[in-house]
Amino acid sequence: MSQKLHNLLTTALVLSEQFQTTLDTTPPTQNNTTAADGVQTADPLIILSNSAKSLRAQVTKLSLLAITAPFTPSAISTCLASVNDSVMPSMVTAALLLTPGEYTKAFSTEARILVKTGLKEFAILVQEITNTAEKLDPSFPSKSGESSKDAENKKKELSKQEKDVITSQTGRVWDVCDTITTLVSQGVVGHVAKRVQQWHDLVKDAISELEEWDPEDEDDGGFEELMGSDDDDDESNTENEDDDDDEKDVEALQTQKKSLLRALKPIAQIYPAIVTNRVKKGGLTANNPQQIAKLESLTANLQSIPDHVDEAAGSLYEHNLDDCVKYLKLAKTTAEKTIDLVVFPLGEQQQEDKFTVWSRTWRKVMGDVISDVQK
């Protein structure tokens, strides 16, 4: 029986490595070709969720069996056989079936990364169980150089520290399995909504930082003032002129700041509006290639807006008003393109709804506030 356990442990490590390589080297296809050929296939999301739950259950049993005396190779072998024969192949298959064309590139990539991480963490646990078998099972194949007397004197039970290593690693596998289950429960819609909220937070953070910034707090002439000058009388008039110029600069920056904030706030408003009216309630259907393609464009635009906003604010901090206006216009243009993509619901019927009406109001407001920005 110990030889069987040894073989199963070795197989688990080999399979984990091979499956990780498969996930790394198999390029994602745009669509599920099997389904496209008319063959009914199981939902890969269900397969992924079920296999993650099964892995979690099996590693729980494995860890308990490994740390509880007496050490029982037969029970551990049963759990390992299930993972090797069913759980790992199912997880990898499900990850490969979650194609970008049907589930978005981000969702597909996330699933692959999580499955690969789960395989890595499971392999580490398997190695710890292998170490445990070598310590506790007298009939387990000995390491090179170990005498029969050493085998007879093997421990009867693991120390607390050794048990903690196994339980800690089991917890890491649990975390990955739970994350996979959460990803599946969110689905494409929930995953997209979560990412959009993250980008919205970035825009809000930039706005908050801009609101707290005060151009009058900046002092570019501190070094000269500290050093003093021997020609104070001769330069007094020049300094007065410089002070006047500084006041004008500060006034210009304050005006630009107010105009920029007025323009950025409606840009930030498109995020919750799109999530509520289009991502969650806009007729979005998973496995619909046309809708997924539009969703890819939508998320690409929403992801790029925070970069433009940061550049606009950063240019203002550097007193570069021209670049500030340039990046603000980029943010505005990208926001308008985003609105255009989802001006109607994502379903088949192109009918106006409250979001369509809201988008017209938004455009008018955006046009008014952008004209206030200094050119």
TrEMBL record:
Q: Where is this region: Disordered?
A: 135-163, 211-250
The biased composition feature labelled Basic and acidic residues covers: 146-163
Q: Which residues form the Cyclin-D1-binding protein 1-like N-terminal domain?
A: 48-215
What ranges does the record list as Acidic residues composition bias? 211-249
SUPFAM superfamilies listed in its UniProt record: ARM repeat
GO CC annotations, alphabetized: nucleus
On the tree of life, the source organism's domain of life is Eukaryota
Record-linked PANTHER family: CYCLIN D1-BINDING PROTEIN 1, CYCLIN-D1-BINDING PROTEIN 1
The protein in question is named Cyclin-D1-binding protein 1-like N-terminal domain-containing protein
Q: Which organism is it from?
A: Talaromyces pinophilus (Penicillium pinophilum)
